[in-house]
Design a protein that fits this description.
heterotrimer, A mainly alpha, B alpha/beta, C mainly alpha, B: alpha/beta, Rossmann fold, six-stranded mixed β-sheet, 17 helices, 25% strand, C: mainly alpha, ABC transporter involved in vitamin B12 uptake, BtuC, two-stranded antiparallel sheet
């Protein structure tokens, strides 16, 4: 017999090794996804640093500044937490929706609707200004969540009944929501011509740590408010729903394989609408807490893009409710410090880079790269 | 014992195609283990083996879709390296795949021209329509070049695939399980075409797992088992069916299952004049009437694409019917949700186990409770009792011998056989009164197939009624008590299988029905 | 309020959407969903404007814009085609990235003052046709005329040429195309690039022709997303895309112009007397997009046709090794 030719030559002749990329057949160890996410963040910070220096900035100084400005002392840390609160809630909102394969890009609009609903309680008014906070706050929470839920309901229904792409509908609803709220800020509820509503009565403010400075002197000046509790409790509830409840099972099944869910008899239409409403409600709660806990009035600039950052947070946290909390704190730091950085587009750019690196890194979870000696049986 | 390949050296001309020492690994499996294969000019050479033996892999390598990890391919004595299907086609080797690679929304001509350098830029389809029509005439493959592929029948689509290769000047045609989608009559037509092509100087490699066909059509046979060659290029006339089976499987294969006669019980499923449309809005079921009783297996025979999928979907509530009625345990269930029939005791083993029957990224436990998570004891009010679910999954794993590290493993990591066992376990554990099983053994190896058959027979004895929809006639004949034949959405007739039946006469009757002859006509023909 | 002027300006505004929509049609026909259109348009707008400010040559600005957007689109192509990651998230990431980068690099541009724009002209004979002439062929930017040409060319390319046939095959059934030797991966990269080029062109159209200047995110104001919606309405056909784009363009102009006159159709104009109602007017394009989507989705459901069959699914071939 004549000689057996070897495998087709690859580009590098004589190089004794070959790279093989093959799909994973076993599960990677539990710490692996976390390590990959962390790696993605590190890589993106590096890339961001490169772009920064190209634009004339000093990346090391910038990053150091960010770290100091957000975690330097108790005061700034408290401010970081304040920024983290709406992120936690919106991150949870997006996680729940994404779990079911629903791309809720409308968290920003639902956030605004929540703020709007909470404000309406005071400004319409639904409750008189001297109502006790024990009534004010729960009512504002309910109305805010309901308003957000309605804003999620519309795209949800369109998706469920007519299979209308929810990415675009939720996005369009964002633009509509902002203008709706703008109308009320500029026209109906404007405080003597300024672009904001009148300040809310004291009893409609969410309590902050600094309210207790008399009992605990260390709390002086700390702005962290009750919204943090909302966020933490919501995280626990979302976890319980997703992994221990019937609805959560249905959400996970539909999200993983809608055809199997249909085969198993699940009602996808009902779940779609319900999940969009829950997602909208959580985002609405974020809006309510931001209004009543931070600015205490309805104004235009209540969101530096929380709705979109929440999407990235949900992805970074791999849709895990508890990881959302941690990631939100990190991003809260970025937003807080980012306000002082020029140019102002940097936080958004870094968010984009992080997301890109994250998605790219997802590849490592599904495939493994092996280096094998040529000719050897792998 | 059959002889080795030394007989082939009696032919003086060198082999047209030679594959030597081919090795191909996929993650977790050695698909081809040092395989040699040889094709002579002008022969029909069968490549035989059960599912998963490595036949398709080997031929995909020859067709340029995969690259081997080791080994060589020679065409006309010269070594070749195929880095893409284009290279293989240029060398004269064309493959007709089991699952057709045709773009449904484009016309026959467009599909045949796809990927070629001619026409250069502007599409002048009319000219090529004529060329293709002429080509079809020459080889006896009639098809309308202007038709869009989705409008064609399966048999016609196969002709397009063959024409595609002939148009490119293929000298070697590799046919991957070509009869899987054909009725017995159409199979005869295909065999006639193949013989005509050989007469014109072409050579054919015929991949199959069906012994009968291999015996009928091929000149020589190569047998693969678990990636290795067990017989290489044996002349077909010198070997028996039993020998081939042993070479294929490695042990004596029992051709008859142990089926106890069971008197059928009460009526469990009654279907009257059922009408339904398929995804394209074309009627797929045109007045189907059938019934199933307890303690019996009722088979639905028919070539794929005659309404079987729609039938299963309508019965299980996944598709709305446009007329007729379905009575399950006396209750009308048409247009009720799948949940309704599941709760009444209907189990469904779907055709597509990965895309419909299971959820790939969810754990075995999550998959196991798919049909009972909403009921006690798994469900408690709004919450799920996860420990109970886990325990249930463990029991199923043990009882049905599902091989996996643990019950938290995602379903996508299970092998085909294990996944099917999981699905069967899940469906049977609900103690169903009716099981609708569609293609339950597709893609499984012989051991797994036997296991599935045993489970179905056990359920039959236990009192369930089973509706078995399958394209494997052998399977239907060995398991069913009665068989309906479905053709273009209508029932052509019903035959009863009792122990004394003459199987060849049955096969002939069913075969005729599968190609559109109603039973009355057949009986008249026989009587008159 | 002169309707002719409104429509004339509407055609110009619609050209922006037209480019973006046709670009996305190419990408989606090849099977890749690219949600990063908004980001790519912003990059295009920003680089067109800044290049023109720096060099004084708007044609150069146009070229740079197209290349920049095309380049950034390749990130999405790499992630979705080679790494086979989820196309929705990748597109969103591209939007963030494009928006962020254009904001960072465009810092300070808004104060750059006026620049020389791309030429505007009328077409001699055609501009005299009654009704149509003054709207379509009179005093329009050169890019508008490019748009007119692009529509039939794109349609012809997709439906009546060989490369167009390959494009359609890649988006419908990539496995079939692959088995016949068509390089699915390369074509997908290519058509994503084409989508990027056209999105960059759309952005440049804004900053160099329609609304010259740089206004951060307000430059595009969500038109990239509207374009994606229009692709569905257009049922992936350039001719319908043109129809939808021009209607949207006219709508946007109408919304601006309707706030001007004191009287409309004999009634006193509420938008003039209460400028705050302008907020509701601004909602109209977005609400209209939702409506357009609903129509497009219902039609797709009814006709059982619709998106290229392989849209959104990564093409994975049998393992080959590098």
């Amino acid at each position: 017999m004549t000689e057996i030719a070897s495998s087709p030559p690859t580009r590098v002749r004589g190089f004794p090794y070959r790279i093989r990329i093959e799909p994973r057949i076993t599960q990677p160890p539990r710490w692996y996804p976390l390590a990959v996410s962390l790696g993605a963040i590190v890589v993106s910070l590096l890339i961001g640093g490169v772009i920064l220096s190209l634009a004339g900035g000093n990346p090391v100084a910038t990053y150091a500044h960010i770290a100091r400005a957000s975690f330097g002392d108790a005061g700034v840390f408290s401010d970081t937490m304040v920024k983290a609160i709406p992120l936690i809630l919106i991150g949870l909102a997006c996680s729940v929706a994404f779990r079911m394969g629903l791309w809720n890009i409308g968290a920003e609009g639902q956030f605004f609707l929540g703020a709007f609903g909470a404000s309406a309680v005071i400004l319409t008014p639904i409750l008189p200004p001297d109502t006790s906070p024990w009534i004010f706050i729960p009512v504002m929470m309910l109305v805010g969540m309901a308003a957000g839920a309605i804003w999620g309901f519309v795209p949800g229904l369109l998706k469920a009944k007519l299979n209308v792409n929810e990415i675009i509908t939720t996005l369009m609803m964002n633009y509509i929501a902002i203008r709706l709220v703008d109308y009320f800020i500029y026209a109906k509820w404007s405080e003597s011509g300024f672009q904001m509503s009148p300040m809310f009565p004291r009893s409609a403010w969410l309590p902050r740590l600094s309210d207790f400075a008399e009992q605990v002197p260390a709390f002086r000046g700390l702005t962290t408010h009750l919204g943090l509790v909302f966020g933490l409790v919501a995280a626990v509830i979302v976890y319980l729903i997703l992994y221990r409840s019937r609805m959560g099972y249905e959400i996970r099944l539909i999200g993983d394989n809608p055809r199997a869910a249909e085969y198993a008899g699940l009602n996808i239409t009902r779940n779609t609408v319900l999940v969009m409403m829950i997602s909208g409600a959580l985002a609405g709660l974020a809006g309510m807490s931001e209004i009543t806990g931070v600015v205490h009035r309805l104004q235009g600039s209540i969101s530096p893009g929380y709705g979109f950052t929440g999407i990235i947070i949900a992805w970074l946290a791999k849709l895990n409710p508890f990881a959302v909390i941690i990631v939100s704190i990190l991003f809260g730091a970025l937003i807080l410090a980012g306000r002082q950085i020029q140019p102002s587009g940097i936080p958004k750019m870094i968010q984009g880079i992080i997301l890109v690196c994250l998605i790219a890194s997802d590849f490592l979870l599904r495939y493994q790269i092996r280096i094998v000696r040529r000719g050897e049986e792998a | 014992m059959s002889s080795g390949n030394d007989l082939t050296s009696q032919q003086i001309s060198p082999p047209l195609v030679q594959m030597k020492g081919i090795v191909k690994r996929f993650p977790g499996v050695l698909a081809n283990d040092n395989v040699d294969f040889e094709l002579q000019r002008g022969e029909i050479h069968a490549l035989l083996g059960e599912n998963g033996a490595g036949k398709s892999t080997l031929m995909n390598i020859l067709a340029g879709l995969y690259r081997p990890d080791a080994g060589a391919i020679l065409v006309n004595g010269r070594p070749v390296h195929f880095s893409s299907p284009r290279d293989a086609i240029r060398a004269g080797i064309g493959m007709v795949h089991q699952h057709f690679m045709l773009v449904p929304s484009q016309t026959v001509t467009e599909n045949i021209l796809l990927g070629l350098d001619e026409p250069r830029f502007l599409l002048n389809l009319k000219k090529y329509d004529q060329v293709i029509e002429d080509l079809g005439e020459r080889f006896g493959l009639k098809v309308d070049p202007r038709a869009k592929v989705w409008q064609l029948s399966v048999g016609e689509q196969q002709r397009v695939e063959i024409l595609k290769m002939l148009y490119r000047g293929a000298q070697v045609l590799v046919m991957d399980e070509p009869t899987a989608v054909l009725a017995p009559l159409e199979i005869e037509g295909l065999f006639t075409t193949l013989r005509a092509m050989v007469a014109e100087g072409k050579s054919v490699i015929f991949i199959s797992h069906k012994l009968q066909e291999v015996m009928e059509i091929s000149d020589r046979v190569t047998v693969l088992r678990r990636g290795k060659v067990t017989a290489s290029g044996i002349p077909t006339e010198q070997v028996t069916r039993e020998e081939l089976a042993r070479l294929m499987v490695g042990r004596d294969v029992i051709f008859q299952l142990d089926k106890q006669p069971q008197p059928p019980g009460e009526l469990i499923l009654q279907v009257d004049d059922l009408h339904a449309e398929n995804d394209k809005g074309i009627p797929a079921l045109r007045g189907v009437s059938l019934n199933v009783r307890c303690n019996e297996i009722v088979g639905i025979a028919g070539v794929a694409g005659n309404g079987q999928r729609e039938l299963a979907q309508v019965l299980t509530g996944l598709r709305k019917c446009t007329g007729g009625s379905i009575r399950f345990k006396g209750e009308i269930i048409n247009d009720k949700s799948p949940r309704c029939s599941i709760d009444l005791g209907m189990a469904h083993v779907p055709e597509d186990r990965t895309h419909v029957g299971s959820s790939p990224n969810l754990s075995i436990t999550d998959n196991a409770i798919m049909k009972k998570y909403h009921r006690e004891p798994i469900s408690r009010g709004w919450m799920l009792d996860m420990p109970a679910a886990s325990q249930f999954a463990q029991e199923l794993k043990r009882a049905y011998d599902i091989i996996a590290p643990n019950v938290d493993t995602p379903a996508r990591l299970l092998s085909g056989g294990n996944l099917q066992r999981l699905i069967l376990a899940r469906e049977i554990s609900g103690e169903p009164s009716l099981i609708i099983a569609m293609q339950p053994t597709r893609g499984l190896d012989v051991g797994a197939i036997e296991g599935v058959h045993r489970l179905l027979l056990a359920q039959r004895s236990a009192g369930a009624g089973i509706l078995l929809i399958s394209e494997e006639l052998d399977e239907l004949l060995s398991l069913s008590d009665r068989v309906y034949v479905l053709y273009e959405g209508k029932i052509m007739g019903e035959v009863t299988i009792s122990n004394g039946s003459d199987s060849s006469e049955l096969v002939e009757k069913i075969g005729l029905m599968m190609t559109g002859t109603p039973l009355e006509q057949i009986n008249e023909g026989i009587a008159g | 309020m002169d309707l002719t002027i409104v429509l004339q300006a509407g055609v110009a505004t619609g050209t922006v959407l037209l480019f973006a929509t046709i670009g996305e049609i190419f990408a989606e026909r090849a099977g890749i969903l690219n949600l990063g259109v908004e980001g790519m348009m912003l990059i295009g707008a920003m680089s067109a404007f800044s290049t023109t400010v720096a060099t004084g040559n708007p044609w150069l600005g146009l070229l740079v814009a197209m290349l920049a957007a095309g380049l950034i689109s390749q990130i999405h192509a790499f992630i979705t085609v080679t790494l086979q990651a989820d196309q929705v998230v990748s597109g969103l990431a591209l939007t963030f990235l494009g928006t962020g980068i254009s904001l960072v690099l465009g810092e300070g541009l808004s104060k750059a003052g006026t620049i020389s724009l791309l030429p505007k002209f009328s077409i001699p004979l055609l501009s005299h046709i009654p009704l149509i002439g003054p709207i379509f062929f009179t005093e329009q930017s050169v890019l508008v005329y490019v748009g007119y040409l692009m529509v039939p060319l794109a349609w012809y390319y997709i439906n009546h040429t060989r490369p167009g046939m390959h494009l359609r095959a890649v988006g419908e059934y990539p496995a079939a195309a692959d088995a016949l030797g068509i390089n699915v991966f390369f074509l997908r990269y290519f058509y994503v690039f084409v989508g990027g080029l056209l999105a960059g062109l759309a952005g440049a159209t804004i900053s160099l022709a329609i609304s010259p200047g740089w206004f951060s995110e307000l430059t595009t104001a969500g038109q990239g997303w509207i374009a994606i919606g229009l692709v569905i309405f257009a049922q992936w056909d350039p001719l319908r895309a043109a129809f939808g784009s021009y209607i949207f363009g006219a709508l946007r102009r109408l919304i601006l112009d309707i706030q001007g006159p004191t009287v409309i159709l004999g009634f006193s104009n509420p938008f003039f007397y209460n400028p705050y109602l302008g907020f509701f007017l601004e909602m109209v394009p977005y609400a209209f997009t939702i409506l357009v989507l609903v129509i497009g989705s219902r039609e797709a459901l009814r006709k059982r046709l619709g998106a290229p069959a392989a849209l959104g699914t990564p093409y994975i071939r049998g393992e080959r090794g590098l």
